[in-house]
Amino acid sequence: MNTTKTVKFDQICKSMLNIDRNVRSVAIMDRNGRLIHSETHRGFTQPSFDKWNNVHYMECTFDISLGAKFDDLYGPIRYHHSGHDDFMMFSFPYHKNIIIVTSTKKVSPIAFATKISKFINGVTV
């Protein structure tokens, strides 16, 4: 990967951490589930992207990737959301990659996903 893209991914992750006070972590992965870049707020340890393995990343990207096969029929997937005991996780397609954002449970899923999607749609590769 070239330095320009690495810097861009770094900037995207850092900017997304500041979109909403409830954002806890951001990770950019390729379609194979390999971590490209991640940022986490200090003091936030769950989930720690550093400790997740490639199998878990694959799991997070599965719905987005599988859904792409039905884009012609239903339209493209804008995001996938899942709630966990103490956090929420959102997956967004981003060109040939996937962005995973975790947040506190204090967010409204649709409003939060819309806010993140608007940011992602404004970012160019």
Secondary-structure map with pairings?
Blueprint: H1 3-17, E1 23-30, E2 35-40, H2 54-67, H3 71-74, E3 80-83, E4 88-94, E5 97-103, H4 109-121
Antiparallel strand pairs: 1-2, 1-5, 3-4, 4-5
Protein name: Roadblock/LAMTOR2 domain-containing protein
Organism: Candidatus Nitrosotalea okcheonensis
Mean pLDDT: 78
Estimate the strand proportion: 25-35%
Major beta sheet summary: 5 strands, antiparallel
List the total number of helices.
4
Question: Spans of 5+ residues with little confidence (pLDDT < 50)?
Answer: none
Q: What's the architecture in CATH terms?
A: 2-Layer Sandwich
Question: What order do the strands of the largest sheet run in, or round the barrel if closed?
Answer: 2-1-5-4-3
**CATH class membership:** Alpha Beta
Tally the beta strands: 5
Distance between the termini: 13 Å
The tally of structural domains comes to 1
CATH homologous superfamily, by name?
A: Dynein light chain 2a, cytoplasmic
Give the structural class.
alpha+beta
The topology string of helices and strands comes to: HEEHHEEEH
Q: Remind me, CATH topology?
A: Beta-Lactamase
The Cα radius of gyration reads 14 Å
The helix content is 25-40%
User: Which term fits the overall shape?
Assistant: globular
Please, could you describe this protein's structure?
The protein is of the alpha+beta class. It has one domain (3-121): Beta-Lactamase (2-Layer Sandwich), CATH 3.30.450. The chain has four helices and five strands; from the N terminus they run αββααβββα. It has helices spanning 3-17, 54-67, 71-74, 109-121, and strands at residues 23-30, 35-40, 80-83, 88-94, 97-103. Strands 2-1-5-4-3 form a five-stranded antiparallel β-sheet, sandwiched between helices. Strand 3 (80-83) and strand 4 (88-94) form a beta hairpin. The longest helix is centred in the first third of the chain and has 15 residues, at 3-17. It starts with a helix and ends with a helix. The mean pLDDT is 78.
